[in-house]
Design a protein that fits this description.
single chain, alpha+beta, Thiol Ester Dehydrase, Chain A
Length: about 150
């Protein structure tokens, strides 16, 4: 475990190979939400020595997708329907990056979310998106019991 990972965070259990390339991501359930973070390592950097913008967008996408899954109680991918981001400032390598999804509205089919990514106590990225709530009947039957319910810190 990296020294940058705050106390109480656990590796986020996702089976997404792409996210595995940048992670592991870390999670901590607090109240009705789930904090998602990543220690920024040299491999996350761009040629200027800051975290790559594509990495920040990937983390924001995961923050809101996982946040949608936590809100719905379905720990299965909530596909991104739309995603908008605004870069506020650079995120320094060697620091902790994190965000928490805010669910503005939830319908039968979609979660409308936003999040701020924070690094070194400063907002580095603003994001909003719409995420599709998966049809539980289309989740493989063998996986359903494992993926239904909210994440925990245990």
């Amino acid at each position: 475990m990296s020294a940058l990972v705050p106390e109480g965070f656990r590796p986020l259990d996702v089976t997404d190979d792409f996210v595995g390339l940048v992670g592991p991501l870390w999670s901590k359930v607090e109240g009705d939400g789930i904090r998602i973070g990543l220690p920024l390592e040299p491999r996350h950097g761009n040629p200027m020595g800051w975290a790559h913008g594509g990495l920040l967008v990937t983390v924001a996408d995961m923050v809101m997708g996982v946040g949608s899954g936590h809100a719905t109680g379905i720990r299965w991918p909530h596909p991104t329907v739309s995603l908008s981001t605004e870069f506020v400032r650079g995120a320094r390598l060697g620091q902790w990056l994190e965000g928490t999804a805010r669910i503005a509205r939830r319908t039968v089919n979609f979660c409308f979310c936003s999040c701020d990514l924070v690094c070194g106590g400063e907002i580095v990225l603003l994001a909003s998106g719409v995420f599709k709530i998966p049809d539980v009947d289309k989740i493989p039957e063998a996986m359903r019991t494992k993926v239904l319910g909210k994440w925990t810190n245990g």
